[in-house]
Specification:
Organism: Aplanochytrium stocchinoi
Keywords: Chromatin regulator, Nucleus, Transcription, Transcription regulation, Transferase
Main location: nucleus
Radius of gyration: 29 Å
Number of helices: 20
Protein name: histone acetyltransferase
Strand order of the largest sheet: 5-6-7-8-9-13-10
Strand content: 15-25%
Number of strands: 15
GO biological process, one term: positive regulation of transcription by RNA polymerase II
Length: 622
């Protein structure tokens, strides 16, 4: 803890591994420890060098049963005339070198895998072909390079989908308790069943396909990671409001891609191509939260170069805006708005005025329609409650993992527990009754099944509890059992306050609108155009139209598309299979893996070494 965080700690608190710690037992230390890179000794010349500089990965040597003493440094290999680094897909056949390396692989560094050795997916092949084509066109037309030189640069770009997992986004506990309490209150007074309760069968979990895309560029014979993006696809099997929606959750890059003029082009064309891909699969909306990291923070890739600029919110919005305009020109997007205009504009934000300083009852009756008058409150009998229809507008908000809205709702409800909203005492009192004064916090345990993340995540989960760069592994639970609450309490109690369930729900939405409106430009809601009839498209080849019509006749439905020789059905089904679990399944897992193994990208030599370790992890299953 820094001095500021230490001062904010309570006298006793729950520490990193879940144990109770007394604040007075903490010791003061100076954060001046410097990580020193490990060394490796050459088995021939006996010289020492950094493992990073020598591209030495101990885990790879262990995988090949090659002892560390047999390591031969790059300089000694150069003297023998052997090409370094030897890549897994290099074609070295002359002079029997390939056979000798295979026979004596324990004496030489294990083969360095390349990004192209990672199995392709249909989507990855389509996106890779797109960025290579666009890069080649840019280099020839704009940069004026020769076709041969342009092809060499374009072919140095490799795109792979390294994670594709079936996951489930669950509603956070505070919002879940809010909705459950409101519905339990309404069903307690419903007559003849639950016919007066709206959204009674609402889902609180949203299945989706989570994907991770990496872009590499070959630099000095090594494939270096230059771009990563995390995606969430909520298909037709997902309940509303997430159905047929895509959330572009995280993206990050390091400024090593050359030439520099290709960086924006390659990154934007990756996203544009992905939008075209999901549009052809039947998705209808794409949501983006443009949230730049603070300078020095590790977002996805650990340790960026110090000279790399961190984009401001305005610059990032402009970057997305340029990309969206290209999508509109290509007919991929037909409408653009923001999340406030689409979902929250009907809820007037709560603006601080002079009325804020008045009492709760005076302000509620004079400046807001949330609270009923005293006569209306007195007539809130059981008969009136039984005919009351409750709306849950919060259930109409798309709920994505890691998005701003779920976190902001939890923050608003957490502030209710701390009695921050003193002017809304009726809400605070009601929330204390159904949630409790304090919450039960425990370390979340990851389930052990095939839909889980990697074994690394299971073993290292507790180490990430206090990681500020991502969601913690604390699991918060209410200390109140809803089944033990009598919702038939008389008027005047904390349950039957002056606010009805509809007014409480509106209060929450208006608080959320107050938070979202000032930053609404950072939230993009993009409506995708529907799948067009390929036979009517301009310039459609007869062969392409014949293939599409042939698939229609074989039961694929009326709406199918052909991208990169891949038939895509408009029911959001994915032609690519689910991939095995791994470290790229979540942003936090990838970041933790990099931090624990010091896989840094602040220097090119470290970026090469880190990329090699990641490639060996993917191809050798280390």
């Amino acid at each position: 803890w820094c001095q500021k965080c230490y001062a904010a700690l309570p006298g006793r608190f729950i520490a990193l591994l879940g144990q109770s710690v007394q604040k007075s037992s903490l010791e003061r230390h100076v954060n001046d420890q410097v990580y020193r890179e490990p060394w490796i000794q050459c088995g021939k010349c006996k010289n020492h060098m950094h493992q990073v500089c020598a591209l030495y990965n101990a885990a790879a040597y262990k995988h090949y049963d090659a002892p560390q003493e047999n390591f031969i440094c790059p300089l000694c290999l150069c003297e023998k005339g052997k090409s370094i680094p030897t890549t897994a897909d290099s074609k070295v056949e002359e002079n029997g070198i390939k056979e000798r390396i295979k026979k004596d692989d324990k004496l030489y560094p294990p083969c360095i895998p390349t990004a192209s050795s990672i199995p392709h997916t249909y989507m990855g092949e389509y996106l890779e072909d797109r960025i290579r084509t666009m890069a080649l066109q840019h280099l020839i037309k704009v940069e004026g390079v020769s076709k041969e030189e342009g092809e060499n640069v374009a072919n140095s770009l490799v795109l792979r989908v390294v994670s594709s997992r079936e996951r489930v986004t669950h509603v956070e506990p505070r919002l879940l308790r809010w909705i459950q309490a409101q519905k339990k209150f309404s069903t307690s007074f419903a007559v003849g069943g639950n016919e007066h309760v709206q959204s009674e069968n609402a889902k609180f979990s949203f299945p989706h396909r989570s994907k991770t895309i990496l872009i590499f560029q070959r630099i000095g014979g090594i494939d270096v990671v230059v771009f990563v993006v995390y995606l969430q696809e909520y298909g037709s099997n997902c309940p509303e409001p997430n159905r047929n929606k895509v959330y572009i959750s995280y993206l990050d890059s390091v400024a090593y891609l050359q030439p520099r003029s290709l960086r924006t082009l390659v990154y934007q064309q990756t996203i544009i191509g992905y939008m075209e891909w999901v549009k052809a699969r039947g998705f209808r909306y794409i949501y983006i939260w443009a949230c730049p990291p603070q300078r020095g923070d590790a977002y996805i890739i650990y340790c960026h170069p110090k000279w790399q600029r961190t984009p401001s919110a305005e610059r990032l919005r402009k970057w997305y805006g340029e990309m969206i305009e290209q999508c509109k020109a290509a007919g991929v997007i037909i409408h653009q708005t923001n999340i406030y205009e689409k979902h929250l504009s009907s809820f007037r934000p709560l603006v601080n005025t002079r009325a804020t300083h008045k009492s709760s009852s005076t302000r509620m009756s004079a400046t807001s329609s949330l609270a009923p008058t005293s006569s209306k409150f007195s007539s809130l009998t059981t008969d009136n409650k039984s005919s009351m229809k409750i709306n849950y507008p919060v259930e109409n908000l798309p709920y994505f993992y890691g998005d701003y809205i779920p976190n902001e709702i939890e923050s608003l409800l957490a502030r209710l527990s701390r009695k921050t909203f003193q002017s809304d005492r009726s809400i605070v009192s009601w929330w204390e009754t159904i949630w409790g004064v304090t919450a039960k916090a425990t370390l979340a345990t990851l389930p052990v099944n095939n839909n889980d993340t990697s074994e690394y995540m299971k073993g290292e989960a507790q180490m990430s509890v206090m990681n500020k760069t991502g969601p913690s592994f604390w699991k918060f639970e209410s200390t109140v059992d809803l089944n033990s609450i009598d919702f038939h309490d008389p008027p005047g109690s904390s349950l039957c306050t002056a606010m009805t369930p509809n007014q409480r729900n509106e209060w929450l939405m208006r608080k959320l609108a107050t938070s979202i409106k000032p930053m609404s430009e950072n939230f993009f809601v993009l409506q995708l155009s529907g799948v067009k009839n390929k036979s009517k498209e301009k310039g459609t080849k007869k062969k392409k139209r014949r293939i599409v019509n042939d698939y229609k006749n074989h039961g694929f439905g009326a709406d199918v598309s052909l991208l990169k020789n891949t038939i895509l059905k408009s029911d959001t089904s994915d032609p690519d299979p689910v991939l095995p679990p791994g470290i790229f399944d979540t942003r936090l897992a990838f970041l933790d893996y990099s931090q624990q193994r010091h896989l840094q990208f602040d220097q090119l030599r470290r970026a090469k070494y880190s990329s090699i370790v990641l490639l060996q992890h993917l191809t050798l299953d280390l």
